[in-house]
Amino acid sequence: MRLQRQLRSIRAQGAKTMPPEAAAMIDRVIADLNARGVEFGRLRPGHQAPDLSLPNHLGRTVSLYETLDRKPVLLLFYRGSWCPYCCAQLRAMQLALPQIRAAGAHLIAVSPELPDHSLTLAERNALDFDILSDLGGAAARGYGLVYRVPDTLRDFYRANGLDLARRNGTPSEEAWHLPVPATYLLSPSGVVRYARIDTDFTQRPEPQSIVDLLLDRGPAH
């Protein structure tokens, strides 16, 4: 199933099960992020990507620029394993991983979650690529992606059992600064070749479009 269809299904299911006031809050947050989109899109094609060095889900430190090492890197930032849209994207990327590797590229995903939660995510979804823990969000800030979750939405998440301070291993206030989901394709020299910032976090690019870009078959969407 194409990722776009999965994302629509997740949103439709949420609309059926979520209280209307909660759905309205999420829509307001997305509208605000969309209106502020220019704030999060400052790293554009042609720009040099900041390096990062973070622990992966197995506890090994991974350096972006060492990983590049004459190969392109597909770099994803996502909110966490509690986000169904993020999980759908990562599963879809796993299905595309053989094509990504055949094109000579690496795939790296980054979230603010502790490595233990990333490991659980990898095991449950059979993910075979590096999932890095950006504790405190320094790497996401370097890419200009961090936003603050409004208090009203925090209350809803907490009431539904989401404790980001525990999941992200950071003080409560800091834990509620999340990355806007983003997808970058970096050249072997670390130059941004493609950048997509999903201020509407219910949307993500179709993996096949990224594969096509890797293979020079046309633009990604």
Notable features of this structure?
globular; five-stranded mixed β-sheet; Glutaredoxin; 17% strand; 221 residues; single chain; alpha/beta; 11 helices; two-stranded antiparallel ribbon
Overall helicity: 40-55%
Assign the CATH architecture.
3-Layer(aba) Sandwich
CATH topology: Glutaredoxin
* Shape designation: globular
CATH superfamily: Glutaredoxin
Strand content: 15-25%
CATH class division: Alpha Beta
Order of helices and strands: HHHEEHEHEHEHEHHHEEEH
Write down the overall mean pLDDT.
93
Please state how the strands of the largest beta sheet are arranged side by side.
5-4-3-8-9
The structure class reads alpha/beta
Number of strands: 9
Instruction: Provide the number of structural domains.
Output: 1
User: What can be said about the biggest beta sheet?
Assistant: 5 strands, mixed
Indicate the radius of gyration in whole angstroms.
17 Å
Low-confidence runs: none
Keywords: Antioxidant, Disulfide bond, Oxidoreductase, Peroxidase, Redox-active center
Family: Belongs to the peroxiredoxin family. BCP/PrxQ subfamily.
EC number: 1.11.1.24
Protein name: thioredoxin-dependent peroxiredoxin
